[in-house]
Amino acid sequence: MRILLCLLLVAAAPAFAATPGLGTVSEASGFTRTGRYDEVVKLCDNFAKAYPAAVRCLDFGTTPQGRPMKALVASTRGALDPAAARAQDLPVVLVQGGIHAGEIDGKDAGFLALREVLEGKAAKGALDKLVLVFVPVFNVDGHERFGAWNRPNQRGPVEMGWRTTAQNYNLNRDYLKADSPEMQAMLGLVQAWEPLAVVDLHATDGAQFEHDISIQVEPVHAGDPALREAGRAWRDGVIADLEKQGSLPLPFYPSFVVGDDPSSGFADGVAPPRFSTGYFWLRNRLGMLVETHSWREYPHRVRITRNTVVSVLERLAANGQAWQRLAREADVRAGRPDGAPQPLAYTAGPNERLIDFRGYAYTRTPSEVSGALMTRYDESTPQIWRIPLRDDVQPSITVAAPGAGYLVPAEHAAFVGAKLRLHGVEFREIAAGGEREVEAFRAETAQLSAGSLESHQTLAVTGEWAKETRAVPAGSLYVPLRQPRARVVMALLEPKAPDSLLAWGEFNNAFERKEYMEDYVAEDVARKMLAEDPALAEAFARRLQDDPAFAADPQARLEFFYRRHASWDERYNLYPVLRTDVAP
């Protein structure tokens, strides 16, 4: 049955000859294979030669293994560089494939869509109203780690690339922290073109069911309220187009709440800014995550990804100017902080509704291999599942914004400044040092992760900002909130934000004890403090009486006095970044 479906999909392809030199290995194989990266390099040049007035091929970076990172810029208005696009006020859409190079649908679908648009066979006139920047493969080195079983839970192509980069970075966990050279290059491309919309093309992992694609957009649940309306219209419009073409699209990512258990249903949400769709709403721009269903055959996935790209271009050609105005107005609003609570993270609330979901008959029985309860699907028997969906998405972490901005001390200025520049954040160096009334964050608890994540030992803290007077040396950075990137600033510098620099472990040194008082010294110090301070003696006695765990812990009892002694490190658990209500 799957072979018949593939043949039907191939037969359904437009019956016209490709422009010479612009066909792909995938297309020639009936969409069962995908080409190597040298094909991308060749096609990039060939498109520019075939359409010199409408396409430019450019390098926007070099991978750690020395490969060029290629992008194709397409516009029939001749807006083939950022200055020309800005001069004509054309919306820019950035479409990226292969961020996970095993999920390579976007590369082959993107080339197919671009060729058909240029030939006037799809999205007619769209390139006269916008600029398309197409990155066929984001994770280039991972693409060339080529093999037949790089995606064991995916049907086709015959061989494909690897999920992570040569340095083993998962690029779709790197948008905000931007560790990898590839992400730094991508952010440079974003800074240059300032796209209104970014489309990230993937294939899912997970269960077996009939739905073949999911379309998620932000802002919808998060971000500027007016821009949310544009995001919802874009998402719903693309979904409607796909439905008309016979697809079964979803507006949420179909990952079960409880792994491998369909009855647990789904929960919608807003991805943190390590992900593409969690990042671009912070910039007051539109981000779309496209996930084809990995259990559909490759010809089907390429075709519906192609249909998605065409719909994206048509929708942005029709609405891009209006949505671009909304984005610019959102920039202005973001630069007017009022101290109101700002969301840093979101989650789906407990309320749920039942939905009809097109799955297959299945059983859940103990496995003779693993011994665990396993789900087995019967693809010959479609079945409607009546399962819960939690889609009431609300802020889960909120913080009042500072009145003016953040102060990054001089000793951290080089590192933090480099991160801020990658994201186009405005800041300036403070010429004159001195003491200032600020807000400081002292962690009440600081919990390091047990293992490494993306080469980081992450950190979770509790605590609150409080007024203090602190020295701010010359050479420190002032990062104002009165700028379009205000949400990016808070995502990077608020300690409780899920992908802040602190959360990724960049300030772990501040939460490590470096100096100690020997026990025999602490004993003498404690006796002297008890003798000199009756109130302290009373507090110690009360703690012994009320807290049995404290009373039974010799180190805790000694530290009771050490923390109150002049020798205690007052910077221990002090987050180095400060907040200010007054611009320096």
Task: Summarize the structure in short.
This protein is of the alpha/beta class. It is built from 16 helices and 19 strands.
What key attributes describe this structure?
single chain, 584 residues, alpha/beta, eight-stranded mixed β-sheet, four-stranded antiparallel β-sheet, 16 helices, 32% helix, globular, disordered N terminus
Report on this model:
With 584 residues, the chain is an alpha/beta fold. 32% of the residues lie in helices and 24% in strands. The chain is built from 16 helices and 19 strands. It has helices spanning 2-11, 25-28, 37-50, 82-87, 105-118, 140-143, 181-193, 225-244, 276-279, 298-334, 410-422, 486-493, 519-532, 534-546, 548-551, 554-562, and strands at residues 55-62, 68-74, 92-96, 131-135, 197-203, 213-218, 249-250, 266-267, 286-292, 341-348, 353-366, 373-390, 393-400, 405-408, 428-429, 434-448, 459-472, 477-480, 578-580. The strands form five sheets. It has an eight-stranded mixed beta sheet, with helices on both faces. Strands 15-18-14-19 form a four-stranded antiparallel beta sheet. Helix 5 links the parallel strand 3 (92-96) and strand 4 (131-135). Helix 13 packs across helix 16. The longest helix is centred in the middle third of the chain and has 37 residues, at 298-334. The protein is globular. Mean pLDDT is 95; it is low at 1-16.
